[in-house]
């Protein structure tokens, strides 16, 4: 009876994690040592993410109850779930860099805001700049465009002032 209660708690825990996560990646952790998993969890924790290992049947139960049934196709063999609760790009980037670094493990697939992702899409997603960098780039573009618009208006005002001054001079010289 204790094992059944334990399994229900694991399923409930995954349901809560799935409902809070912005990105869920299913991975194969084959070959990872305990020290490597600990290191990975520390790196992910800095990006507001977690790395959980559980039996596929328990993950499937939790996925079904949270409308993440798409994950089922990836739940074969040794499985660990990477859950991002913050910037999903940073989380994906951390994991991709980690598996390149230790040359073990692989991405099976994932879900980003309800959309199923293949392992190649996740790797591409991981290569994107972080949200903060993208926002900075957009702000830079907006600032640059605003500055050029201001420059155009300043030159128009200057041209109108010069034209008015020339007309005034012409009118004053024409009256004498």
Provide an overview of this structure.
The chain is an alpha+beta fold and 176 residues long. The protein has two domains: 2-128, Alpha-Beta Plaits; 129-176. Helices cover 62% and strands 15% of the residues. It contains six helices and five strands; from the N terminus they run H-E-H-E-H-E-H-E-E-H-H. It has helices at 2-20, 34-46, 56-65, 88-102, 119-126, 131-175, and strands spanning 23-28, 49-53, 80-84, 106-112, 115-117. Strands 2-3-1-4-5 form a five-stranded antiparallel sheet. A hairpin with a 2-residue loop joins strand 4 and strand 5. It is elongated.
Structure in a nutshell:
62% of the residues lie in helices and 15% in strands. The protein has helices at residues 2-20, 34-46, 56-65, 88-102, 119-126, 131-175, and strands at 23-28, 49-53, 80-84, 106-112, 115-117.
Largest sheet: 5 strands, antiparallel
Category by helix and strand content = alpha+beta
Seen as an oligomer or otherwise, the chain set is: single chain
Total number of helical segments? 6
Helix content: 55-70%
Based on CA inertia axes, which overall geometry fits?
Answer: elongated
**What is the CATH-assigned architecture of the largest domain?**
2-Layer Sandwich
| Largest beta sheet: strand ordering | 2-3-1-4-5
How would you state the average pLDDT, rounded? 86
Tell me the domain tally: 2
What is the CATH superfamily label of the largest domain? Ribosomal protein L10, N-terminal RNA-binding domain
Strand content: 5-15%
| SSE run | HEHEHEHEEHH
Q: Termini distance?
A: 112 Å
Uncertain residue segments:
none
> Nearest-angstrom radius of gyration?
28 Å
What is the tally of beta strands?
5
CATH fold-level name of the largest domain = Alpha-Beta Plaits
Which CATH first-tier class of the largest domain would you pick?
Alpha Beta
């Amino acid at each position: 009876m204790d094992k059944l209660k334990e399994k229900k708690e694991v399923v409930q825990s995954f349901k809560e994690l799935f409902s809070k996560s912005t990105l869920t990646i299913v991975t194969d952790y084959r070959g990872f040592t305990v020290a490597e998993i600990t290191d990975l969890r520390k790196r992910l924790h800095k990006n507001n993410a977690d790395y959980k290992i559980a039996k596929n049947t328990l993950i499937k139960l939790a996925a079904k109850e949270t409308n993440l049934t798409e994950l089922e196709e990836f739940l074969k063999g040794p499985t660990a779930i990477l859950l991002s609760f913050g910037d999903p790009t940073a989380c994906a980037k951390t994991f991709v860099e980690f598996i390149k670094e230790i040359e073990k493990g692989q991405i099976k697939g994932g879900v980003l805001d309800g959309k199923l992702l293949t392992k190649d899409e996740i790797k591409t997603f991981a290569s994107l700049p972080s949200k903060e960098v993208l926002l900075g780039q957009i702000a830079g573009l907006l600032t640059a465009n605003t500055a050029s618009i201001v420059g155009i208006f300043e030159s128009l005002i200057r041209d109108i002032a010069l034209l008015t001054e020339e007309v005034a001079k012409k009118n004053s010289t024409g009256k004498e």
